[in-house]
């Protein structure tokens, strides 16, 4: 028995599809980062989208604040703990590892990019690109969608549709909240969304590779033990 008999966290049916998507997302992150490096003003696209969501009423503002809370330390920690617990209950330890490692890598990448790009909003101390809140929720949604795809045995089309839909819904929800609250420019949100799309597939592939090698080594060591 080898590690390859264990459920992969990155379903084989999606590997060919997610690779180019991750590469394109990484390219978008870089292009936007270069475009808005050191900037402190909204671009043309930012201004137009801001105008469309400006004047959010009291009920919707409460929704935006509740959504924003999911990306704050307490809310994010609760979501991660709940997701990891669900993965372990479903006997998907690789998915549990991906939740922790993948989300941490995504948020860490977004934080590093903020320092490198240096785009600000509402003052020089508020680094804005890319949106860490959007990156976090999108990353978590991607992991859950990958888990569902593998567990349900979905094919390439159905699995890709589920993963893309999960990323779009999570990214749109958190992105709208960040723009409505004036916490980020719309292009910050796009950068955060693309950061998750670039990091999670690569991290999932790495988790599978490391898990396969670890279990193979354990199996080899067991075979070499004297009887």
From TrEMBL:
Supply one GO molecular-function term: hydrolase activity
Topological category with respect to the lipid bilayer? Multi-pass membrane protein
The cross-references to SMART domains, in alphabetical order and at most eight, read:
acidPPc
A single cellular component GO annotation: plasma membrane
Task: Write the record's keywords in alphabetical order, separated by commas.
Answer: Cell membrane, Hydrolase, Membrane, Transmembrane, Transmembrane helix
Which ranges of the sequence are coiled-coil? none
* Residue stretches spanning the membrane: 17-38, 95-113, 133-150, 162-183, 189-207
In Pfam terms, one family for this protein is: PAP2
Decide whether keyword Hydrolase is in the record: yes
Q: Which InterPro entries match?
A: PAP2/HPO, PAP2/HPO_sf
Cell location: Cell membrane
Where the record annotates domain Phosphatidic acid phosphatase type 2/haloperoxidase, the positions are 73-204
Principal location class: membrane
**PANTHER family attached here?**
DECAPRENYLPHOSPHORYL-5-PHOSPHORIBOSE PHOSPHATASE RV3807C-RELATED, SPHINGOSINE-1-PHOSPHATE PHOSPHOHYDROLASE
What protein does this entry describe? Undecaprenyl-diphosphatase
